[in-house]
Design a protein that fits this description.
Elements (H helix, E strand, L loop, with lengths): L43 H8 L8 E6 L14 H8 L4 E3 L5 E3 L2 E6 L5 E6 L13 H13 L6 H4 L2 E6 L4 E6 L6 H4 L10 H5 L14 E7 L3 E6 L13 E6 L6 H7 L4 E4 L1 H9 L3 E15 L9 H9 L3 H7 L6 E2 L23 H10 L6 E7 L6 H15 L3 E7 L5 H5 L4 E6 L5 H9 L15 H9 L8 H14 L4 E13 L3 E2 L14 E2 L2
Parallel strand pairs: 1-10, 1-11, 14-15, 14-16
Antiparallel strand pairs: 2-3, 4-5, 5-7, 6-7, 8-9, 9-10, 11-17, 12-16, 12-17, 13-17, 18-19
Helix pairs in contact: 9-11, 14-15, 14-16, 15-16
Length: 531
Amino acid sequence: MVHPLRTTPDDADQAAARPLPRRALMAGSLLGGAGLLAGCGGDAGTGAALAAAADAPSRTLTWGWRLPTTWDSARGIGYDVHVLSLVYSGLTRLRPDGELAPDLARSWTYNEAGDAVTFHLREGLTYSDGTAVDAAAVKAGLERSRDLPGATSAQSLAVIEEITADSETDVTLHLAAVDHQVPLLLAGLIGHLVSPRAIADEVALNTTPVGAGPFVLEEYVPGSHVRLARNPEHWNAQEILLDELRIVPRPAEAVTYAGLSSGQYDIAHVEDSQIAPLEEAGFSVTGGTCFNVHTIEVNNRHAPFDDPRVVEAFNRAIDRDAIVDGILFGHGEPDWQPFTRDLQGYDPALDRHWDHDPERARALLAEAGLDGPVPVSFHVIGDAGGDISARIAEAVQAQVAEVGFELTIEIAPPGAGQKAAHSYTLFMYSFSGRESPVQALEVLYDQDGWMNISQRQPEGFDEALDLVRRTPLDAPEYTPRLQAATRLAVVGASPHAWIANWNRAHAMNERVTGFTHCRHTQRFEGVGVRS
């Protein structure tokens, strides 16, 4: 059966558009404010790179974002997906609204049993090194991502037992079990495809990506900047209106206005606290909720959270609405589950689950025999960019103190992240979501899940997820079965106290046209420069 989302109106436009003409920028248009980079998390190299932008073509934009930790998608993590998706493509992708769409494959078909899926590739495509994107190349790329030692993609791709190139444009994934989540699994980092020539030549993909994405890496200075050039051979090149996209570390709050005014940045990821001032200053700001959700990981192997009453009391002591209104400046939404409203997996029945109720929280602690102060160590992510997490943690510390919890905040060692969290009792972190909701639930609630520090799972959890995997995405029972799995996970072992989903906002100057908020991976199709 062919999925209804598997064909897009531009499927017939497989020939790449011709490169767009370039014009010179007015002298100095990107120079102003370059000296401010010392306060932007950049360095002298970044300042020099941006100062040189005076000679850049007019169809060039500079994006203040995050530089990737690697250019090898098989080893990528979290936020790497946004930049790596500019140089790599997979068989599928997610649209701006978070729904599944074709990418290098124009469509796909499952066999009747549901344990094999054939992807039908677009014709005439090539990787950035000129190698053909054919079935054999897809086979080589997915096998590398599945079998590469230490690959972050390996566990998720283990469901693929064998890959066969049935023709130049048909490639079949033979699965270990029925799994209709595979097209979703392949819509992000896990599914990014690398040129087989680059694999055979052992190209250092961590610094030299060779993909079939909408852009090609031209220059990369770690910690400083990235320069990408438009890929005229990309299947959707007609939608890529930029000749060049520069990526630099996003600006610090104090210099965002000056950076956008001068053209040092054309688009910049900004904090919620900056939205109103920037809008008042005349800048356009676009944003909205995304896959990311702030969470406190709860280790219910550690006392006192080994008592479910204490877990509920802790959740009911948290005023999520106050955190959204205060710490997040009214942006985002309070949350009681890992999925943002209107995304796959979101269960309306969980809205306001264990809502703020200090009186009930005190009663639960009393029932658990905890009449005095309840001392607990509370670790907070110490990596760069964790300021919001730290502020949320401080708010939670004050809120739960009102019912008897005495939290001692400790900053986790930078770089330790989730690896160290299994020894903590409480850990303030953020979940960046997954393309497949089943994969998200596995990561969060499976006893071996990367973000389940309790290492316990609810009874019936495996069976609930298997039922979802066995259900086609377009079947009427798919959504209710997925919502039931979410409900079982959240109400069951409870290794998370969900706080709020993110509002991901971008501010831009008047040069930018067509920029759209994306709920998962930020994309640049249709983004241009005003003449």
